């Protein structure tokens, strides 16, 4: 057995067979198909060699054996060489494959969506984020035109950043709102091939829809803020003008009633009444603008939301009509809020009336109350409402719903889609809810219905407070009996109307137009003055500061604050907590007189009560270094 092949005995052959079988069947083996062919060929050769040994042993044919042996001797090194070559080649391919796999894994771990798009706009490669973003498998994307996948379009898009990047050789960006109403930010990076030619672009796509939504909400909120300020400012000026118009018309009626018959125009009184009525309508409108601008004075109490809803149920059912099925689904127990009852009732009414208007042929309205605890990232909370317990009122209807462009303008004042709508219902609702520290959201689907959700902060108190008994307005037949009243008002017309009306009723009227003027005048007349009526917003300071200063000097004084609006919440709270009487503008003469009558009664009580503060009535100018006072007023 000098034959090298014959040196292999049966045992080593069995060993080789086992090793090769293991290499070929083991899944983790890195042997490629070429190596497998080489191994099989070697194996066959070895079997043939053993077969030749058998032939030799049996002595069947010397000749055949000689040729076979030579043949095998050539084949063995040939096959072994082939095996070595293919094995090394497979190794290289495998290592290339594994580094490509590794790269794919790395790129798949990115949250940014990536795609390689070639010059023909075919997608050649994607990562997992891109597949997830476009909700497609790699097979559905690779080899397809990018515009058909991204934009469902047969033609390339205008302003396509990939086309621009391929032609300019620069990074190009674009923002598109296309796929599933998402807003996508696309950046195309040109990819330069080995020859220096641009072979395509790597496009990275970021879904910026959440950021866009937030930006829109912020823009919406600041728009509402700006319109609110404007509306509040206009309403303030209007209130002043209306106070004068209504007031003078009332003076006109009085004049008409009192003047000698021969001079009297029989229609004069009716004409003045018309002026008052129209003025009152304008005043109602300004009141709504104030509500939207969050400038009206609230009268918050601890109230039970469920009780308010059941309390308004009768009125609600009458208002929405019989063809609408009104259902209540109220949370168990009381939901306590610190809120202005009338305002919350108005919110419910406005939303219910809109729901009714959306269902001209009948339908269903459901009013639901819930307690919601908000945490930091509460989904429905675009307005920095602090986390905590909120009472929610949900009003949903089965009406015609709204298009997205209506939804976007919903809370704008004067926005209406109705022929006879005012467009104020929702803007007023928005203002009231915001003024109570809450927020409102709307959701709608065309021809299915709409849902409005109002969130209001819950109260920490335990018991609802009773509404005070309404005071009957005082009589117009008021006699001032020479009582001194200081009126501080920067609107000359109002000052004129108030002082004329009061002088006619035997008051001693002192007037001032500014904060400093008010202080000076008070110094001079403080002994004769029992009542102060001051506007809240004065050109050189706050009327609240002024009356607090004056009152500190003479605590027996009755104080009335009057305003068309209050600039901020702090101001509202101060008026409320001061305990001073409040006269909202525009006020008709009857309201002015009834408030003054109330002030006169408090004044009498104050006179009876010993002055506990024992403050001497020292001139204020001595403290503040104000010049010698100038007395003003009509006597
Ligand atoms: N529940 C609702 N269903 C459908 N559309 C509504 C609903 N609520 C409000 N809207 C839309 O919002 C607009 C503004 O409402 P609003 O401010 O109350 O004013 P108005 O009721 O006077 O039109 C309405 O004209 C209507 O198009
Ligand atoms: Mg409405």
TrEMBL record:
Annotated ranges, domain Response regulatory: 484-600
Modified residues (4-aspartylphosphate): 535
Record keywords, A-Z: Membrane, Phosphoprotein, Transmembrane, Transmembrane helix
Domain named PAS: residues: 99-154
PROSITE patterns documented for this protein: HIS_KIN (PS50109), PAS (PS50112), RESPONSE_REGULATORY (PS50110)
The Histidine kinase domain, residue ranges: 233-460
Gene Ontology molecular functions: phosphorelay sensor kinase activity
UniProt biased composition (Basic and acidic residues): 621-635
Transmembrane segments: 6-25, 71-88
InterPro entries reported in the protein's UniProt record: CheY-like_superfamily, HATPase_C_sf, HATPase_dom, His_kinase_dom, HisK_dim/P_dom, HisK_dim/P_sf, PAS, PAS-like_dom_sf
Region entry Disordered, spans: 607-635
Pfam families: HATPase_c (PF02518), HisKA (PF00512), PAS_4 (PF08448), Response_reg (PF00072)
Reactions the enzyme catalyzes: ATP + protein L-histidine = ADP + protein N-phospho-L-histidine
Catalytic activity, EC: 2.7.13.3
PANTHER family reported for this sequence: SENSOR HISTIDINE KINASE, TWO-COMPONENT SENSOR PPRA
Name listed for the protein in its UniProt record: histidine kinase
Source species taxonomy: Bacteria, Candidatus Walliibacteriota
